[in-house]
Structures are given as structure tokens and as C-alpha cells.
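FIELD: query
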Amino acid sequence: METGKTVLGTTDPLAIAFFLAFVVVTLAVTYWAARRTRTTQEFYAAGRRISGFQNGLALAGDYMSAASFLGIAGMVATKGYDGLIYSVGFLVGWPIILFLIAEPLRNLGKYTFADVVAYRLRARPIRTAAATGAIVTVLFYLTAQMVGAGSLVGQMFGLGYETAVVAVGALMIAYVLFGGMLATTWVQIIKAVLLLGGATLLVVLILARFGFDYAKLFGEARARYGDAILQPGKLVADPVDAVSLGLALMFGTAGLPHILMRFYTVPDAREARKSVFYATGWIGYFYILTFTIGYGAAVLVGQDLIVRMDKGGNMAAPLLAETLGGRPFLGFLSAVAFATILAVVAGLTLAGASALSHDLWAGVVRHGRSNEREEMRMARIATLALGALAILLGILFKGQNVAFMVGLAFAIAASANFPALLLSITWKRFTTAGAVASMVAGLVTATALIVLSPTVWVDIFKKPEAIFPYKSPGLFSMAAAFLAGVAVTLLSREPEAERKFEEEKVRTYVGIGAD
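FIELD: result
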């Protein structure tokens, strides 16, 4: 690639060939899965026949999103060291899942995390609040993925941004609608293998340019952009904002509906723990790679070209692939990034559809009396509705940095979902009113603070000054959720819930009665 020039934005036959190959393979997987998806358990949980190793790879595929691959690499390339906050924050949530969440989820739940919170509490209010929090989280996350999809596919095929978003949305709907969790799982496994392989090759080629010496890479970055690119403060200057963002990323992982849902695909709690062990290894390895890719792009591609191609910096990794391996590597890596987006949006759509059909329709509207056929029909209608909404939001949020938007989704997950889930598992005194108060307080506080923050109030509404000064609300909204849950619980007693706590503990640790 000549300095300052790229073929991105023009139609590349090689990239199209890689893209079509992936689409053909994954549609074949979807066809195979559709023939094996007849019941709600098969649609939501792949019949609980996924092994721990397979689920670990699928978890990694579900979690290593376009925001991570495109957004973090772009953030490091344009902002420097502060991109590490996202890499580390995304990773350190996994030990929390391993030690606090994985086993109770598998032994107490059925298809969604609301099953766990509602296990000994009153189901209807819990499912209403939990499904609302889950859907809002999914929509934020989906929007970020669709923004990345529009940028990448549009650049790769020379399509308009809006056309690219619609095309990705149509494929995403097809995977979930026909193949359910089984197709989604195998699409995520294929994507994880491709992404880890492509990112590894990219890093090897970067380091080969610098004699496999990180000091030379960072020295070149300092020579071109000054000391600021190696120091904190360029992206998140306020320490309160840094702590708030870190907390949201760390605890948000344990509240993401599409991640929690994956623990119902394995046969027992032992396989659930193995899933987290494998996933943590793959994910940790991947985030180390994104940091190197970001600095490599800053030095070898240049910030000017990266920002010119996409003001959010999301094209840093594909541009770097073109610099190091020409059109063939650009085509391969673009197809990998496309696979990344499709796998994640499929998982998100399935989680959102489950919240709508299993929690809201079957649990709240039909009082648990709907049959399998009816719930499957509602799940598919919900998939279509969520897919259409994701396409619309992806178009409306054009141009935003996708990693930052995912940070906002994590803040909502950490505030609306995680506190109530943790308190319901660990606190005998916890009541239905306390759980609902916690989920509502977390959701409302996080959403309101996001709207009042500089990200929306200044950047989107064009107001001169933000009402809430911090970009990440996690520190404040998580505190509000825990305080509301504890305070409201202490106002009353729920003897039936307390009596069931001992039964819940036995099932959590032993698994007796779990599906």
C-alpha cells in the first residue's frame, strides 16, 4: 500500500470471495441446525449438548466483538495507552463469572438470567424488570455492532453505509430465526478460530517489522506522536471517569444477557466452569493482540489515514492488514471482522428474543402457561422485531466509536442486571421488592446519566455543556442499584423467599433438580 492511500472503499473481488465463502459455510451450518431445532430447549439452549471446550470457544466468539477488534485497535491507534483500559476491563470480568456466577446460573436457571433471580422470588415482577434491563443492554450492544458492521462492510464492498447495515441485519436474522442457539454456537466457534488466527498472524507480521522487539515498536510510536501516546490521560483524563469505566467493564461482563445465556447450553455446572476457564484463556490472549495491533497501526498506517477513513478509528486493523499483507490479507481480515460481527449480533439477538418471548410473553403475559409451539412462535417474532430495530439504530448512530458504545452497554449491564443477580444468589434476606428496586434503579440511573453525559448531551444534542460531567456512569449507577436493593429489602420481610434460600443453596452447589 502506498503511503496515505488504500483500496478500502473500492470493490475487491478477493474480499468478496472470502466473504461469500464464510456466508455459504455459515448458512450451511444454519440449515443443518434448523433440522435439529424443534423445541424451546433446542432453540434457546442447543439442547444442552455443547461441551465445555466448545462453549469456551463459543463464549470467546460471542465476547470478542467487532467493538474489540475494530474499536480497541482504533482507539489505541488514535488515542494511545488509554485503550488498555478497555482491553483489561473486558478481560477481568471473567474471574468474577467463574467464581460467582457460572455454577449458580447453570444449576438454577433455564434459559435466561431472570430464571435465577426469580427462583425463590415472585416471578412476574422479577421477569418484567429483568427482561427490560436485558433488552436495553442488548439494544445498546447491538447498535455498537451494527455501526461496526456498516463501516466495515461498506468500506470492503464499496457499498453505502445504510445498505451494508441492512445486509448484515438480514443475515443475522436468518441465523437466529432458523438455526436458534445451535447455529449461533457454531457460527461463534468458527468465528473465534478465524479471529484468533487472523489477529495472531497480524501481530507476527507487525513484530517482524521491528525485529520482534516491542521497545522498537513503542520507540517508533513515541518518535512519531510524542510521549503522550504511551501515557494515560489522552482518552480518559479524569480519574473518577477511569474508575467508573473500569468498574462498568469488569462487572458488566457478569450482567450481559447473551453471555449469561451461554451457560445453559452445557449439560452441567462442571462443564459451565470449564467453559469459563477456556474462554478466559482465549479472550486474554486476544486482548493482548489488540493492543499490539493498535500501536502497529499508529506507526505503520498513520493516524491521519485511519481517521480519514473512519473518524471513530474503526478501520485501523483492516488498514494495517493491507499495509502488511496487501489485498489478499485485507480481504481475509475483512471477512474475519465480518464473521466477528455476525457471530456477536446473532448471540445478542437470540438473548433479546429470549427475554421477550421466555420472560415477558411466557412468564408475565401468559403466567407460565404457554406451550412450546406458542413460545417458539413468539421467539421468532421477537427475533424479527429486534433485528429490524437493530438495523434502524445502527443507521441512526453512524460514525460513533463502537468500543465506547459497548462501554455504555456494559455500564447498563453492570447496573441493571449484575447487582440483583448477585444479591439474589448470596443474600437470604433479599426480597422481590428489593430486586425490582435494584434493577429499576440501575437501569434508570445508568440510562439517565448516559443521556446527560458529554457523549449524548454535547456530542449528539449539541448542548454547550453536559449536565453530568463524566462519560461513564458505572460507578454511580452500580452504587444506586446496590443501595436501592438493600434499602428496599430492609423495609419488609418475605418469609417464603427466605425459606427457599436453603433449597436454592443446595441446588446451586449440588445441582439436584437442574435440567
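FIELD: remark
The first helix runs from residue 13 to 34.
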